[in-house]
Task: inverse folding
């Protein structure tokens, strides 16, 4: 297992400074939210991509990949009733795959709850098929670029589309591509009252990424989640991916959060 930290909590930090600080703390990788780099990944030049990748290499840290994929630019939606919006979103997904590969990243987290809700007048089945088509085309390019797309089941207070790991795996089987698997997130699973160790064992062959946090949306170990059985389950399934901390409360400051998070995770590993 490798330990990572998500970068959006380092508000106003230069990405190279995030790399340096995370490496100093002992993190193996940084997971990047693309909106922290540019409003649109289409605006990130080849030169800038090379510079970011070299900055990580100089800091001796990996770029785990990308998450919060569709926050920016506005208007993207994987299963929108409007075919033009779906096409634009598909094209942007392909651009994200290329960015991830260009940066040397391994995984892309398909979260973005507000860009995937089932929207009237669509039925769930229609929205499902639209999403599947978007993911299938993206998975084909991901296979070519050696990037893993990870479907994230999110809690029902965030979205009405894929809220349980079983449903995420159903989408994996529908897409039917080795570069399309799942990520499990501690906070979302806890909010849904789902036992994480059980899900890790049940879906071991499909778990390609993991987000550590707690049921309060804060750093791991700060809430009510029983973490030791989760880490033991990750060990039991021989999970070799990233355990990446993603928090939704940035107080008191990113340095404190990053330090306390890695100390807690390392104490269990």
Result:
């Amino acid at each position: 297992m490798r330990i990572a930290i998500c970068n959006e909590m380092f508000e106003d930090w230069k990405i190279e400074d995030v790399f340096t600080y995370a490496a100093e703390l002992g993190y193996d990788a940084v997971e990047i939210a693309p909106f922290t780099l540019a409003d649109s990944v289409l605006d990130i030049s080849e030169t800038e991509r090379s510079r970011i990748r070299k900055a990580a290499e100089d800091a001796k840290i990996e770029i785990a990949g990308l998450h919060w994929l569709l926050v920016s630019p506005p208007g993207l939606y994987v299963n929108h009733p409007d075919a033009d919006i779906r096409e634009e979103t598909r094209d942007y997904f392909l651009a994200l795959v290329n960015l991830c590969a260009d940066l040397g990243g391994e995984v892309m987290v398909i979260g973005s709850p507000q860009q995937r809700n089932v929207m009237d007048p669509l039925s769930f089945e229609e929205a499902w098929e639209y999403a599947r088509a978007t993911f299938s085309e993206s998975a084909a390019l991901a296979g070519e670029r050696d990037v893993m797309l990870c479907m994230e089941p999110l809690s029902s207070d965030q979205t009405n589309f894929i809220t349980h790991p079983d449903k995420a795996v159903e989408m994996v089987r529908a897409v039917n591509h080795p570069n399309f698997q799942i990520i499990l997130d501690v906070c979302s699973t806890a909010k849904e009252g789902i036992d994480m160790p059980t899900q890790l064992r049940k879906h071991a062959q499909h778990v390609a990424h993991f987000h550590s946090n707690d049921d309060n949306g804060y750093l791991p170990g700060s809430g009510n989640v029983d973490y030791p059985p989760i880490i033991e389950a990750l060990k039991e399934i021989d999970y070799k991916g990233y355990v990446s901390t993603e928090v939704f409360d940035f107080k008191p400051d990113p340095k404190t959060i990053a330090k306390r998070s890695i100390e807690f995770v390392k104490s269990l590993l």
